[in-house]
Design goal:
Helix content is 41%, strand content 16%. Strands 1-6-2-3-4-5 form a six-stranded antiparallel β-sheet, with helices on both faces. A hairpin with an 8-residue loop joins strand 4 and strand 5. The chain is elongated and about 65 Å long.
């Protein structure tokens, strides 16, 4: 099996945490840390709203609203994910963004994607020369062939998923080092 690939399985609704940890390949984020990023974002938003006066109807209505950045189930917003990745010098760009599309980059030449639909987040990542679906709902990492990658991303978008490209250098990980040297085929063939 692919035991050397870090793969957090779904627990409750912590898919944002699993998505980040599977992307970075380790236990980098806990729900507590993500919650504190969410609270910080809420607070910055509250400060901005307060500039219009703390007695304004907009402000009072805003205070009544549940947080956009997290909820009781453990869901976290794209802003929380984005801020969490900034700690690692990573940024995300919407795959469909015209600015990005203009660059004409073949998805195969990227390193990783994160995908979101409603409450679910998951990671697609390259190790060595191989792409894997690291969805926390799967039993384990799933190999995606190069020829299938573009179709896989297109299919997600048809299913109303938002797909984001992760830009920047991901932390070193064992899976990447191993799959630079040996191919998946060599690994799966019994000696």
């Amino acid at each position: 099996g692919m035991d050397f690939i870090f793969h957090e399985k779904q627990e409750g609704f912590l898919c944002a945490q699993h998505c980040l940890n599977n992307l970075l390949q380790g236990e980098y984020f806990s729900p507590v840390e993500l919650a504190s990023i969410a609270h910080q974002l809420d607070e910055e938003e509250r400060m901005r709203m307060a500039e219009g006066g703390v007695t304004s109807e907009e402000y009072l209505a805003f205070l009544q609203q549940p947080s956009e950045n997290m909820d009781d189930t453990g869901f976290f917003s794209i802003q929380v994910i984005s801020n969490a990745l900034k700690f690692w010098g990573l940024e995300i760009i919407h795959f469909n963004n015209p600015e990005y599309q203009k660059l004409g980059i073949d998805p195969i030449n990227e390193r990783s994607f994160i995908c979101n639909y409603k409450q679910h987040w998951f990671t697609i990542r390259k190790f060595g020369k191989h792409w894997f679906n690291l969805n926390s709902l799967l039993a384990g990492p799933e190999l995606i062939s190069d020829t299938c990658l573009a179709n896989f991303l297109a299919r997600l978008q048809q299913q109303a998923y938002s797909v984001f490209v992760v830009k920047g250098d991901l932390p070193d990980c064992e899976a990447d080092q191993l799959l630079q040297i040996i191919s998946v085929e060599e690994m799966d063939t019994p000696k």
